[in-house]
Amino acid sequence: MSRIVKRAAAIAIAAATAAQAQAEDIKVGLLLPFSGVYAALGEEIEAGFRLGLDSFGADSGATFEILREDSEASPPVGLAKTRKLIMQDRVDVMAGVVSSGVLAAIRDVVDGAKVPLIVANAGNDEATGKACSPYITRISFSNAQLNRPMGKYLVDHGVTKVVTFAPDYAAGQQMMKAFGDAFVAAGGEIVAQEFTPFQKTQDFGPYLAKAKTSGAQAVYAFYAGSEAIAFVKQYDSFGMKEALPLYGPGFLNSQLYVGAQGAAAQGIVTALHYVPTIDNAANKAFVAAFTAQAGHLPSEYAVQGYDAARALVEAVKSGATDRESLAAALPRTSFDGPRGKTAIDPATNNIMQPIYVYDTVAGPDGPTQKVLAQLPVEVDPVNGCEMATLN
Ligand code: BEZ
C-alpha cells in the first residue's frame, strides 16, 4: 500500500471512529407514571421501549442510557422531573409522557430548552395543534384522532342518543369533544355528559344510576388504567351493558387490563390504533418477542414504547447525535410496523395511522379483540399549529 493510500485509510478509520464515539452514548430521559392510576401504563411503555432498543438498536453504533423518572401522572411532578432530566442529567432526548395534563405542563420547558421529546402516549391535541413544537414528535395518537371517527361509526350503526363519561382533565375533555362534534354532525344527540374527578373516583354508581334513566341508547366513555378496570366492572355489575351498550376509545378495555376486567369487558365496541390481533407479519414478530420478554400479550401502550424506540434508533442511524439533530430527524420517521404503515405529518409532527374498531369477545385465554373495521388514515387538522423551523 502506498503512503498516500495508507494515510487515506487511516483518516477514514479515524473519521468512522469519531462518528461512532459521537453517537456512542445517547442519554434518554424516560418520563412515565410508575405510580398512581396510570402506573401499569408506564411499566408497559417502558417494556416496549426497551424491547424496541434491543430489537433495532444493536447495529446503530450507539448505546442508549435510560434515566427513568416517575411523573405520577401529575403535571407539577412531571414538570419538576422534566427540569431535572434536562438541566441536571443533561439528557439528549426525552421519551414517554402518558397524561395529556403532564404533556401540557412540560411543553414550554422542552421547547425552550430545545430538547426533542418523543411522545409515547399522551394524546393532548394542542401539543400537535396550537402548542406544536419542532421538538415534539408524537408516535402514539391524538385524542381527536381516535374519537372523531367513532362519532360517525355509532350513527352509521344506529346509535343516535348517548351519555358520555370521562375523567375531568384534558384528555377526557378533548376526547369527548372530538367524539361529540362528529356524533352531532352525523345526526346524533348527546343526552348528558359526566366528567368524573380524575384520580379520585372509585365509585361510579351515582353517575351510572343517572345514565340508566337518561333516555340514552348507549354510553360512550374514556377511562384508562385502574379507572378503566373499575368503570367497566361496575358498569357490568350494575346491569348496564344489556340496556345501554358501551362504546369508547379502546383504552377502556385495553389488552393490558382486559384480563382483570374478564367477562365484564365482553361486547364493548371500541377503537384504537393497535390491538394484538392485527394480522400482519411485523405484528406477529412483535407479539412473539414482547410476549417472550414480558410474559403477556402487548397492548397499545407497549407498541407505542416499541415504536418510540424504533423512531429514536432510526434517527440515530440517519446520523443524528445530539439534541438538535435528533429533533430534526425524529419527524422524518416512517415505517411499516405492528400497527401497519405509520408516518409523521410534517405540518404538526403527529402520527398518521390506521384506526381499528373492534369488539371484545371471549377467547381461549380470556377476552380478545375481534377487528370489525379498519378505518382509513385520517390526518388531523392543523388546529392552529404553525410549525417553527429548527435553526
Ligand atoms: C392522556 O392523558 O392523554 C391519556 C392517558 C391514558 C390513555 C390515553 C390517553
What does this structure look like?
This protein has 391 residues and is α/β, with parallel strands linked by helices. It folds into 2 domains: 23-141 and 279-352, Response regulator (Rossmann fold, 3-Layer(aba) Sandwich); 144-272 and 355-375, 3-Layer(aba) Sandwich (Rossmann fold), CATH 3.40.50. The protein has 13 helices and 15 strands. The protein has helices spanning 3-23, 39-57, 75-88, 100-113, 143-156, 170-185, 205-212, 225-237, 240-243, 258-261, 281-294, 300-317, 323-329; strands at residues 25-32, 63-70, 93-96, 117-119, 136-138, 161-167, 189-196, 218-221, 246-249, 269-272, 334-337, 340-345, 350-352, 355-363, 366-375. The strands form 3 sheets. Strands 7-6-8-9-10-14-15 form a 7-stranded mixed sheet. The protein has a 5-stranded parallel sheet with strand order 2-1-3-4-5, sandwiched between helices. A 3-stranded antiparallel sheet has the order 11-12-13, with no helix packed on it. β9, α10 and β10 form a beta-alpha-beta unit. α3 runs parallel beside α4 and α5 packs parallel to α6. The longest helix has 21 residues, at 3-23. The structure holds benzoic acid.
